[in-house]
Amino acid sequence: MADRIKMTTPLVEMDGDEMTRIIWKMIKDELLLPYIDLKTEYYDLGLQHRDATDDQVTVDSANATKRLGVAVKCATITPNAQRVEEYQLKEMWKSPNGTIRALLDGTVFRAPIIAAGIDPLVPTWTKPITIARHAYGDVYKSVDMVVEAGSKAELLVTDKTGEATSELIHEFVNTSGIILGQHNTDASISSFARSCFNFALDTKQDLWFATKDTISKKYDHRFKDIFQDIFESEYEDRFQAAGIEYFYTLIDDAVARVMRSEGGYIWACKNYDGDVMSDMVATAFGSLGMMTSVLVSPSGAFEYEAAHGTVTRHYYKHLKGEETSTNSVATIFAWTGALKKRGELDELPELSAFAEALEQATIATIESGVMTGDLYALSSLAEKRKVSTEEFIQEVGKNLRLKKPFQG
Ligand code: NAP
Ligand code: MG
Q: Any residues with Cβ below 6 Å from ligand 1, and which?
């Protein structure tokens, strides 16, 4: 075999928990280390080490991502009361993804991996639909109240000079009712917009954005205006040069167009729309094991991961010595996404080419009928075979070695 591919800048490697931690090591041993002189700055985000470092390791890994620009992350446990017990934790540590996203001020883009035989429930969707969810504010950072009949609800704002402005929300004359106060900030909407425009340029896909600005004439209209201003002042020329478009429409029109589309674009969503629509789109494309996720900061740092969790049920089987059939595809693509980006930034075309070849070998494995149980249940191929977690990764390795210049 030829010499292993050299890297210049390290990747930030964030290790994780349970079944995905097992898969993580297999991918490195079988699919990466034989071919790449892998350089990583390693952070162990496994729950035990987060606990031992009082979660400092999560903060350090996010700061390393800011510094080095590209990270790859394994799925991690977000502790709840049961996990605090199970792992004897000092505290119920916060979601690592939440911590990293807050530090990077980033937006999460989720995209399905497409393979023949895993047919989307919407037959026209032949290309991936990438969803970007604005993960700040609106109903997720709101206050709400139940109000008695006879109450009057008003919106009151006190500015920095102490001057107050108020507006009537509703007079509850004969009936009790409910009210909600929500907000967003220009800073957060602007970061979201820049992350979306950057990612569209990065992946050379059109960007769609939609709100309900006809009804919400100030709130939703603000989103529309901020996107439009930033587009015109910072991105329009680059979009033109890249041959891609920014397209704004009403949310209902967007939903109708998405259903009729063939895919192949990024759909930027307000917080609630993204929460709901990402589950619909993910389900229509098939398995969680085929969904990738990238966190993009407005300053241009990228963190790649699988969209699924640590697959706890499979891990407990694994611990009992039973065979598992866990899908490693989204985790493999997290690595290839990060390696391609590193290759592009450091001008190492052989690193990007390797990542591309590994993706092709992974898809070719599934399309040849060799797949894990989740896909076996979905695949429309006439000849298919369900394999174990290990065997799938080994089969990908075999397909990779069929490709020049990676023969073992
Ligand atoms: P999950 O790990 O995504 O798994 C839910 C179920 O989906 C699995 O039991 C399995 O179904 C199926 N599945 C998910 N990924 C699969 C794969 N790669 N291959 C085959 N089947 C797959 O979600 P969860 O069970 O709700 O959460 C488990 C842990 O993950 C939690 O501690 C949670 O905090 C954490 N989590 C982390 C992240 C992250 O780090 N980004 C995201 C979500 C959840 P079957 O059991 O039917 O086979
Ligand atoms: Mg949701």
A: 75-78, 97, 288-289, 305, 308-313, 326-327, 374
| pLDDT tens, position by position, 385-398 | 999 999 999 999 99
How does the average pLDDT of the chain come out, rounded? 95
- Indicate if the pLDDT at residue 73 is higher than 90: yes
Compute the distance between CA of residue 305 and CA of residue 100 in angstroms, rounded to an integer.
12
For residue 312, the ligand 1 atom closest to its alpha carbon is 28
Which residue's C-alpha comes closest to atom 43 of ligand 1? 309
Angle, alpha carbons 399-120-352 (nearest 5°): 40
Nearest-angstrom CA–CA distance, 207 and 204: 9
| Pairing assessment for the beta strands 291-296 and 107-112 based on DSSP bridges | antiparallel
Ligand 1, residues 308, 317, 322, 374: which to mutate, most atoms within 8 A of Cβ?
Answer: 308
Q: Residue ranges of the alpha helices (H) in 145-244?
A: 186-203, 219-230, 236-242
Q: Which atom of ligand 1 is nearest to the CA of 83?
A: 32
pLDDT (tens digit, 9 = 90+) per residue, 320-348? 999 999 999 999 999 999 999 999 999 99
Q: Are 223 and 189 in contact (CB under 8 A)?
A: yes
DSSP 306: E
